[in-house]
Amino acid sequence: MDFKSMLNPEEKGDLLRKESQHTTVQFSNNRLKKINSGESNREVLRLIKNSRVGLVENTKPENNNRLIEMAREASELGSRVEFSLPGQVHLERPEICDEQIDRLKLEELIRPAQEFIQKTTSYHPDLQAEVSVRKENNFIKLENSSGFSGSYRKTQVKILFGLRLIEGKNLLVAYSFPQETHWENINWEEERETLLQKIDWGRKNVSLPSGNYPVLFIPETFAEILHPVEACLNGQAVVRGLSPWANRLEEKIFSENFSLSNNGLLPRGPGSKPFDREGVGCSSFHLIENGKLQNYLLDLETAHKLNLTPMGTGEENGPTINNLVMEPGEKSFSEMLQSIDEGILIAGTMGAWAGNPYGGQVSGNISLGYKIKNGKIEGRLKDAMFSLNIFRAFKDNISAIGSEPKWVDNLHLPAVLIDPVNISIKG
Amino acid sequence: MQSKLQNLVSLSNSDYCDIRIEETEVTLISFRGKEIEKMERKIQFGGCIRTLIGSGWGFVAFNRLDELEDKLRRAEEQARAINRVKAGSISLAPSQKFIDRVFTPYREDPRKVSLKEKAELLEHYNQLILETDPRITSTRIVYFDKHTDWYYTNSHGSYIYQEKTDIGGNLGATASDGEERTYDSVTFGSTNDFNSARNHDEAVIAAAQRAADQLTAPTVRGGEYTVILDPEMAGLFVHEAFGHLSEADEIYEDKNLLKLMELGTRYGPSFLNIYDSGQEWGNRGCMKYDDEGTPTEKTYLIKGGEVIGHLHSRESASRMNARPTGNARAINYRFPPICRMRSTCIEGGKDKFEDMLSGIDLGVYAIGGIGGETNGELFTFTATRGQMIRNGRLAEPVKNVTLTGNVFHTLDNIDKIGDDFSFLNNAGGCGKFEQSPLPTSEGSPHIRIKNVIIGGES
Questions:
Q1: What is the pLDDT along chain B (458 residues), one digit of tens a residue?
Q2: In this complex, which of B45, B62, B119 lies closest to A39 when CB atoms are compared?
Q3: Cα A354 from Cα A165, distance rounded (Å)
Q4: Candidate from B23, B59, B137 with C-beta closest to A34
């Protein structure tokens, strides 16, 4: 469809088109359970008239007239915007497409998952594995009334590994969710070893009195407690005055060793792409550098309101990171573990997102936690909760940052040791 | 549509095949702070084909209705790929053949209310919240309505058209004193009545005032308490903690879970009754047929403190030698149906609220549910707000009330069930695997639980 001919002269807007095909192979309780595939053709029209926006999403083919009619109706009552849409610019193109993915046959998706399960059950016959392997091929095209027109292809492999062991009344569960743009980047062996280690450590239950302890967060659980930071950096929260970091650019908010950046151009990064949903080129920039607040996450609207430059983090639901990268430290995981006389390793949390993110208070259930004694894992801690204020903790209580960062969705994070963290334990 | 779908099904070389086609129109309006945030419409059109061959299911979803036979063959190829490597075969519990057309019994059809009227109503609530207290700094108003034409056919000869409507809203207030931020809200939801969105003025003002007043409330001290859950929090508990464990597709292949959830197992006191119903008309998640064309029903999960039922699809019912209960649900055409809840309830008991308070020297009253999570055995839920109970009386308000524990022990520790049952509909929904949010609702009276751990600084 010709986008410009759809609009009247006084109307502005953009049209996003996403076409994707996916195939998912799913194992449950050690057995191949399902194979699904899907084709999706989706378009989103954003129509701006008299500075008001109407949004319409459509998946019905040949539906232009209805699409435009609904967008016009919605725009009459829509939110007011002042930004202008970007024109054509030069775009950098990170490596995000693996030609191999399209050619992968069903059997090739099934085989490595079967091997994973064979090896986990030969390790322990009662282990129940859940594995899902999804390959995706996406084509994204964006056009706007200011002359921007761009498109890209992106492939993705998303794997879910889950191991469950029930012994008596103990239910032990460990998960991981690796996600890559390239098939060869999935490290099946390493994922298996890491999960088996978590199961192995958890088979003995130990106890500890409630109190304050040094706590080692692995990248997956550090991602959970980092959520308030992301929320406070969001330009919408800044504009609305919800973020405590409004008007504080260049101020020191965290300790010297804390650096966090957004990078949309990392080769093979799960969140990498040439441009965002609004046609702004993606880029790499510091959010927090050596503890100093440097930038917010912005889309066109929030950048305009804050009089800042958008840098490619505008998505359908407002400002969103491309890839969030934390600068690693110098200590290996085993060095950090060995440095703890008595403490806790948190490998799984539940409910950590539930609190108010702008206050920095994070508390949750420790769904998978271990007691550390004299630098070694002693066993699993059950019925425990953690609670900390991450604003205070990231300023004063980071004891060590790991040297071995890992992708957790589109976050590239090290393990982090925080001391003290308040722990309450039942019994 | 009927002949097109039935022809396609007749071409299938599978043991079983079903097809769904859906066309949904959505209206979404949100406000934040002083301004309207989003005015969005959606047309979600698409379909899916599911085939069963031997031990394997294949599933293909699409937006375009062209080349349907190719799509059918792809679904068959997937089913065969599984059948080659997996022993045994899947059978489906019998279901009748249904030819039916089901229309929503509207009290007030949201499509007959103009966008302008909806936007003005929400703006009015938004304004009320902002004017309630100077400490209110922002609002979070969300409203949606959805109308779906659902067409279903299967190789047993059923052909069903079902009209589905879903309405939900959240009217939330955020308060701040510069340091702390607190939140409270009013929610509503329905499957047949736009009027559920109206007449919330007093409730909205009260919620905004509570959000502001919570600012000065202290954080609850962590520890073990006797806790009274209000109906909303109890509804969240029964859904997250017990409802999910009752989903039979999770149970039948896991012998350990099967043992925990075996029929006849005792959980909770002898006066505990829990059910999941698709027939509480008007409540979100209720409808005549599930996404396999099985009629819904009222299914008891616990009766008299004993597990007596599970939530079944036709496959899980066959495997567990049970009846299909009409719980096979899919969030939309992109997904195959799986065992899901509808309206999940703790049946009302006989205790008065005052009797539940008496005898508690030090306890916590947990009110409203912000959210929760479980991993089977463990759960964590956060209340919107709390109040201490001291010497049998409600005392000072507290905040950051997060409950955690073992599901089964917690059920056993229920010692009082209130006589004040109510249904709870909100704008949220249930998540399982990738399918979220699925419309569901809950119902419960107040319940009292002993020895619940509450997180926080101790």
A1: 889 999 999 999 999 999 999 999 999 999 988 889 999 999 999 999 999 999 999 999 999 999 999 999 999 999 999 999 888 999 999 989 999 999 999 999 999 999 999 999 999 999 999 999 999 988 999 999 999 999 999 999 999 999 999 999 999 999 988 777 889 999 999 999 999 999 999 999 999 999 999 999 999 998 999 999 999 999 999 998 899 999 999 898 777 789 999 999 999 999 999 999 999 889 999 999 999 999 999 999 999 999 999 999 999 999 999 999 999 999 999 999 999 999 999 999 999 999 999 999 999 999 998 887 787 778 888 899 999 999 999 999 999 899 988 899 999 999 999 999 999 999 888 888 788 999 999 999 999 999 999 986 54
A2: B62
A3: 27
A4: B59
Q: Do B380 and A106 touch (CB under 8 A)?
A: no
B119 touches chain A (CB under 8 A): yes
Residues of A in contact with B35 (CB under 8 A): 79-80
Q: Say if residue B64 is exposed, middle or buried (CB neighbours under 10 Å; 0-12, 13-18, 19+).
A: middle
Residue with tokens 């308070």: B357
DSSP assignment letter at B14: S
Read off φ and ψ for residue A398, nearest 5 degrees.
-80, 115
**CA nearest to B88 within chain A:** A31
B 9-38 residues inside an 8 A Cβ radius of A: 23, 32-33, 35-38
The token duo for A289 is 């550098």
| Residue A94 Cα, gap to closest chain B Cα (Å) | 28
Q: What region does A242 belong to: left with phi over 0, alpha with psi -120 to 50, or beta? A: alpha
Computed on alpha carbons and rounded to an integer, the radius of gyration of chain B in Å comes to: 23
Q: How far apart are CA B379 and CA A385, in angstroms?
A: 11
What residues have CB less than 8 Å from B70, skipping those under 6 apart?
A: none
Least CA distance to B72: which residue of chain A? A37
User: Which ipTM score applies to this complex?
Assistant: 0.87
State whether B174 and A361 contact (CB < 8 Å).
no
Place of tokens 């998303």: A158
Query: Which string of DSSP letters, residue by residue, matches B223-241?
Result: EEEEEEE-HHHHHHHIIII
State both tokens at B66. Answer: 């062209």
On whether the CB atoms of residues A159 and A131 are closer than 8 A, the answer is yes
Please check whether residue B80 touches A, CB under 8 A: no
Rg (CA), chain A: 24
Cβ atoms < 10 Å from Cβ of A203: 13
Contact A401, A416 (CB under 8 A): yes
Chain A residues whose beta carbon lies within 8 Å of the beta carbon of residue B174:
242
Which residue, among A43, A8, A1, A38, has the nearest Cα to A23 in the 3D structure?
A38
Residues A254, A288 contacting (CB under 8 angstroms): yes
Distances B137 to A38, B34, B384 between C-alpha atoms, Å: 43, 10, 18
Instruction: Report which DSSP code applies to A328.
Output: P
| Cβ neighbours, 10 Å, residue B155 | 17
Are the C-beta atoms of residues A73 and B115 closer than 8 Å to each other?
yes
Q: Which of A383, A361, A379 is nearest to A370 (CA)?
A: A379
Residue pLDDT, tens place only, A88-120 = 989 999 999 999 999 999 999 999 999 999 999
Number of cross-chain residue pairs from A and B with Cβ atoms under 8 Å apart: 220
Residues forming a β-bridge with B51: B17, B58
Q: Which residues of B touch A67 (CB under 8 A)?
A: 43
Separation of alpha carbons B278 and B329, rounded Å: 11
pLDDT tens profile A193-203: 999 999 999 99
Give the integer Cα–Cα distance in Å for B408 and B413.
Answer: 9
The predicted model scores a pTM of 0.89
Q: Specify the residue for token string 């009217």.
A: B171
